[in-house]
From TrEMBL:
PROSITE patterns: HRDC (PS50967). CDD domains: RNaseD_exo. Residues 243-323 form the HRDC domain. Residues 1-38 are annotated as: Disordered. InterPro entries: 3'-5'_exonuclease_dom (IPR002562), Exo_C (IPR041605), HRDC-like_sf (IPR010997), HRDC_dom (IPR002121), HRDC_dom_sf (IPR044876), RNase_D-like (IPR051086), RNaseH-like_sf (IPR012337), RNaseH_sf (IPR036397). Residues 1-14 have a biased composition (Basic and acidic residues). Signal peptide: none annotated. SUPFAM superfamilies: HRDC-like (SSF47819), Ribonuclease H-like (SSF53098). Gene3D superfamilies: HRDC domain (1.10.150.80), Ribonuclease H-like superfamily/Ribonuclease H (3.30.420.10). The lineage of its organism: Bacteria, Bacillati, Actinomycetota, Actinomycetes, Kineosporiales. This is HRDC domain-containing protein.
Amino acid sequence: MDGTEHVPEAKPEAEPEPAPEPEAPVVHRLDTPRDGVPPVTADRASYEAAVEALRNGTGPVAVDAERASGHRYGQRAFLVQLRREGAGTVLIDPVALPDLSELNDALEGVEWILHAASQDLPCLAEVGMRPSSLFDTELGGRIAGFPRVGLAAMVESLLGLSLAKEHSAVDWSTRPLPEPWLRYAALDVEVLDDLRAKVLEELDRQGKLEWAREEFAAVAAAPPPPPRIDPWRRTSGMHRVRDRRKLAAVRELWNSRDALARERDVSPGRIMPDSAIVEAAINLPTSVQALVALPGFSGRGSKRHASRWFEAIERARALPDAALPPHTVPGDGPPNPRVWADRDPDAAARLAAARAAVTGLAEELNIPAENLISPDLVRRLCWTPPAPADEERVGLALRAYGARQWQVDQLAAALTEALTAKAE
């Protein structure tokens, strides 16, 4: 021993035990509706009975709609499903009964439960159905931070039930609808009330329920989306088309295909794929034979109407330069952020700081950044910030751009600070 005092080495503090992973629920396959598969309501007498049953039911009503996307033109509903305690499940054929406003009146003041409501509300509005209030289980799941928010995934993780989804992309305009499809449709609304209860419980536990209710109210009150400007510009593969005359060819081909699809009530992609439009526009063939030799024209629909497509190309070829479409259509918002650094370096710095603030807060709150605040709203705020950019004015600007109050409360301070960023 050398006489030096030996102090025992301090033991490191024990790491806290991580929260145990929740046990995966035992999953049971849900094959049959609890009340059986109801008949499709397709005549006036059964419709009136269904309206009365739903009117006299209790609690919220689960609502869903099936479209024939990829088969028919447009996004209209071909089956509407509803379920309410005391009324059971109702399946309505909106082709036979195109005006459901009487049912809508019967449900006035009743909360609707939908999953991904913004997908179904437009086609429901076409048949006269508009909720006065709603609970969106998909949107609620996003706000609660669930990693997967598809209906089947949420039903499995929260309810321990497996939903078959093999009929989700079938042609719902088929008549009569096969019994397995109707079983699938009935099950989709059967699970929504229980799913709502689980999502509501989790939102309440996290202190986010009022946030979600503000979001649901905004979805219910949203006006119909305006018609798209130059919808032909959304043709898949358009990035390959740079010449204005070739852009005109895309426009003429797209419009010709759309008119034929509307006339035949067929999804445009079943007549001619987008890839064929782009190939024809890039190559501008000078004969029908050269046109059908291009990639994408091997399908029967593309070949059958080859002369129609060639006429569209000829129209584009004959346009004077002044009538050719511009490369881009000016929007009502700020320019593409890719050009900000050159056009306004300070705005680019503000945007970078704002994006970092939103990302950090989204992670902290366990909410997808796009649900915490619209990226377009952030761009608008950073391109034209209020002056002076204090928290009150930033909050007013956020509200003017459509942000909900909970978003203002969470973000106004962080975005105010971001708006002081300057280019180095």
